[in-house]
Design a protein that fits this description.
This protein is of the alpha+beta class. It has helices at residues 50-63, 76-90, 94-106, 156-182, 257-262, 315-325; strands at 33-34, 39-41, 66-70, 114-119, 129-138, 194-202, 214-217, 223-227, 233-237, 240-244, 251-255, 272-274, 282-290, 294-295, 313-314. Helix 1 (50-63) packs across helix 4 (156-182) and helix 2 packs across helix 4 (156-182). It starts with 32 loop residues before the first strand and ends in a 16-residue tail after the last helix.
Amino acid sequence: MADLLSNWSSTLQAVPPSHCIPAHERPVDPVEIANTIPVIDLGKAKGEERSVVVQELMKAFEEYGFFQIINHGVPENLMEEAMKVYKEFFSLSAEEKANYAKDAANNTASGAATLYSSSAKHYDSEEHRYWRDVLEHSCNLDGEDKKTWPNNPPRYREVIGAYSDELRRVSKVILGMVTEGLGLEPGFFDKELGQRMLVNHYPACPDPSLTLGVGGHCDPNLITIIQQEVYGLQILKDDKWVGVEPIRNAFVVNSGLPITVISNGKLASVAHRVVTNITQPRTSIGTFICPEDIVEPAKSLVGQDNPPQFKSFHWGVDFMPHYLSKKSVYHASLEPFKIDA
């Protein structure tokens, strides 16, 4: 395990060379916080306005690839408790986190957890690192993977178990609306999709102009649902970075690269990144909903007048290794799977 940033960053007066990313990627230009990123009221999708909300959601996916959701039904106290648990986890002693990381690394069970300090994998040298620590683990329906979750803070498994159940429910609501919006057969996404928690902790940074919490990338999964309290998330819109202002008790939702394939190019995955700040740490809770093993354009969306743009591929075996090696170049992960015109 690389030495976790959260163990020693509070003592720094300057960003160490290991975390000063190459100049071309540093966040030097001013970035406006956009007030045009759509906010979708999921509560209205339960009634007569459902068709309107579905249209709003599809427009948001098409134009931004990002939106925020309110009235989603996740209890506010559960959201607060989940955030509190994660902050407490990253505040544990270096020894406690090291012991957990060692146990996680030795666990070969499916969906085993990992804890690491994030390297910038797309650079030629491992000397460059992003300004974040990461805790991730799966959330399988059978609950067996809870054995790999942290047991400190003591209420971690209880709180995050309830939280992950709620986020799975929300993901089904969103994907159900995508099904309607694309005109797919009912229940298209009603399979046993994978779910993974990926929690990023970005300590306060002495000089945010020299580094990033995470560099620009598109997500490799179907959709990502993010809980954030502190500003830092930025998306690439019309070749410019724009900031996503946190809304209290809202979730940010974005589409991943497999959605582009399944929709046969109709829904894009948008590049995004995270900047740091000098005054306070930022913790974000990401819920990743992963596709089935085989990803391909939905059969009902292709035909003589709309030929498939992508080949069928195995998500875990074919796509993910390529994605991890090409993460920095946004949509390049899909290039090997495109069908030449």
